[in-house]
Design a protein that fits this description.
Strand content of chain A: 15-25%
Distance between the termini of chain A: 52 Å
Strand content of chain B: 15-25%
Radius of gyration of chain A: 19 Å
Shape of chain B: globular
CATH architecture of the largest domain in chain B: Alpha-Beta Barrel
Number of strands of chain A: 2
Number of helices of chain A: 1
Number of strands of chain B: 21
Helix content of chain A: 40-55%
Distance between the termini of chain B: 18 Å
Oligomer: heterodimer
Number of domains of chain B: 3
Radius of gyration of chain B: 23 Å
Largest sheet of chain B: 8 strands, mixed
Number of helices of chain B: 19
Chain lengths: 44, 509
């Protein structure tokens, strides 16, 4: 029981650490917009 | 969109971006629309700033209406003030009496102040006697590339093209503080309109150190591409200094004037004006001069842009360009306005990759009287944006402000729907030369950047490029035609920094 809890907690910590490490901090994130990039394919 | 160090590092779907990035500042755009920062490919930045302090004569209905505005302006001046009074924006083509006005009303209103009022296109002025005296202008004086109008052996006060400089030279140069104030006021209006870069078509070297210092101090954030005027001092300056390029300032060449404007009959035509069979307009300098300038610019790898409106001026410059460019090249030489192009000359654009730099609102401002100047056949060769796009493959768009309104939204509307701001004409003026929405947006962004050798750093929202962008409340690519001019700029960013925010509104605070 105790071992299983440790494993679950470890997995949670790992998940949290992983998510923190994979998220790059940037100066500005602007989201939830329709962006017309006007690149060579005129992608939206 | 993720931004770091003033540049875009990634764009993508919201979910993916939020999984990959967290911002020191996070903005929920609430489903609004983002475009690359708008670029005006032909503007006069300082002149616009200065115009904000001048008497605004745009929309005046008659010459007495102009005098009425000036009389109201006079009331706010002290009685012993004898300084210059400047105004701009009158257009006799919009008045019931379409003849040029005469200065008598100005003389009685302002006997002690020199006054000069620029026509809407900046290619003609009316000056009072005090200003003419300071300039030493007398009846029947003449000047190459200009006209001094006389009626009944007396000066009317109207000066055209090169003659306008005789008066303008008398106006004291703005002090550094005055120029700074004008530039910063202009900048604020430009940010509110969604402009993040301007292509300034003709300044003197004296302005360059001021622009650079204001940009380095952080007060001037507008990105500027500046071409220097066709003067020896300017050629000497750039030859010695070389092309100037920072993230905010780019001075790669020269702006030349081949002729004047259609409204003041200064545009140089192949055949006489339809409403004045004695006049062809005129070139502002000799062909030999333009040839020598092109030779110098080509030799030293600078960029050349030439104001050419009439079909004769356009032909003259295209032939000179072709002489040096000699076919495919990447010099990106430009013809500014290219308002009337004889069909026989279109091939020069394609053969030599010459850029036509167009102002869509010129077409919708001039459409009321341009046919009177050109006649029913020649008008078909005028304002041919689509045809010119097909030659070079891209078409930078601008406004020529302060000649036209600074709004890129009006540029978009005029380019796509060929209507003016009143919605006239419903079917569009010479609609066969309308651009698609996509082409118009490209003209205000990536194509404008390309015409300035800046497409590697701006003009689209791609990783590695400057984070210059605007947020609008309407989708320019989808909105109903009737809604386009209602589009509001919500925010403007330069290098990832917010420079304009429509505050006090319930969105995006």
């Amino acid at each position: 029981m105790c071992t299983r809890r440790i494993i679950v907690l470890s997995a949670l910590c790992f998940a949290l650490l992983t998510s923190c490490h994979t998220k790059k901090t940037v100066d500005l994130l602007i989201y939830n917009a329709t962006i017309y990039t006007v690149d060579s394919n005129f992608l939206k | 969109m993720a931004i770091e160090g003033g540049k875009i590092i990634a764009t993508g779907e919201t979910k993916q971006m939020q999984q990959a990035y967290v911002g020191n500042l996070n903005i929920d755009a609430q489903g609004k629309y983002i475009y690359p920062g708008f670029i005006d490919a032909h503007a006069h930045f300082l002149a616009y700033g200065q115009s904000l302090g001048a008497v605004d004569l745009k929309g005046t209905k008659s010459w007495p209406d102009v005098l009425k505005k000036l009389a109201a302006f006079k009331k706010n001046k002290s009685g012993n003030d004898t300084t210059w009074i400047t105004g701009q924006g009158w257009d006799q083509n919009d008045w019931p009496d379409k003849r040029f006005p005469s200065k008598s009303g100005l003389d009685s209103l302002f006997p002690n102040n020199p006054v000069v009022l620029s026509r809407i296109d900046g290619h003609a002025v009316i000056a009072n006697q005090k200003a003419l005296d300071l300039a030493g202008i007398r009846p029947y004086d003449s000047i190459k590339g200009g006209e001094i109008l006389v009626q009944d052996s007396a000066l009317t006060g109207v000066l055209i093209d090169n003659a306008t400089q005789l008066v303008f030279k008398q106006i004291p140069m703005p002090t550094e503080a005055e120029a700074t104030e004008a530039l910063l006021k202009a900048q604020q209006n430009c940010f509110a309109a969604g402009l993040t870069s301007l292509q300034d078509m003709g300044e003197d070297t004296i302005l360059i150190p001021l622009l650079d210092s204001l940009q380095k101090a952080g007060s001037l954030k507008m990105r500027l591409y500046v071409l220097l005027l066709d003067k020896k001092a300017n050629f000497d300056y750039l030859l010695k200094k070389g092309i100037i390029k920072t993230d905010y300032l780019h001075v790669p060449g020269f702006k030349v004037f081949a002729d004047g404007a259609l409204g003041s009959r200064g545009a140089c035509l192949l055949q006489p004006y339809s409403d004045d069979s004695t006049s062809y307009g005129f070139l502002l300098s000799s062909k030999a001069h333009y040839d020598s300038v092109a030779k110098f610019i080509y030799k030293h790898h600078f960029q050349m842009a030439t104001h050419a409106i009439g079909d004769s001026a356009v032909r003259t410059m295209l032939k000179i360009y072709a002489k040096y460019l000699k076919g495919p090249n990447d010099r990106r030489w430009r013809i500014e306005h290219a308002q009337i192009v004889n069909p026989a000359d279109l091939h020069y654009f394609k053969d030599n990759q010459i850029i036509a730099s167009m102002q869509p609102t010129h077409a919708t401002s001039d459409m009321y009287w341009a046919e009177t100047r050109l006649g029913p056949e020649r008008i078909k060769n005028a304002y041919i944006n689509k045809t010119l796009l097909e030659q070079c493959g891209y078409l930078p768009l601008g406004t020529d402000f302060p000649v036209e309104d600074i709004s890129p939204i009006k540029t978009f509307y005029a380019a796509v729907f060929r209507r003016d701001a009143s919605g006239f004409p419903k079917d569009g003026f010479q609609i066969e030369n309308a651009l698609t929405r996509q082409e118009a947006l490209q003209g205000m962004t990536i194509w404008a950047a390309k015409a300035a050798f800046e497409d590697k750093e701006k003009g689209s929202l791609e990783p590695g490029k400057f984070a210059d962008f605007v947020v609008t409340d309407k989708d320019l690519m989808q909105a109903d035609v009737e809604d386009i001019l209602k589009t509001r700029i919500l925010m403007t960013f330069i290098g990832g920094q917010k420079v304009f925010d429509r505050s006090g509104r319930p969105i995006l605070r």
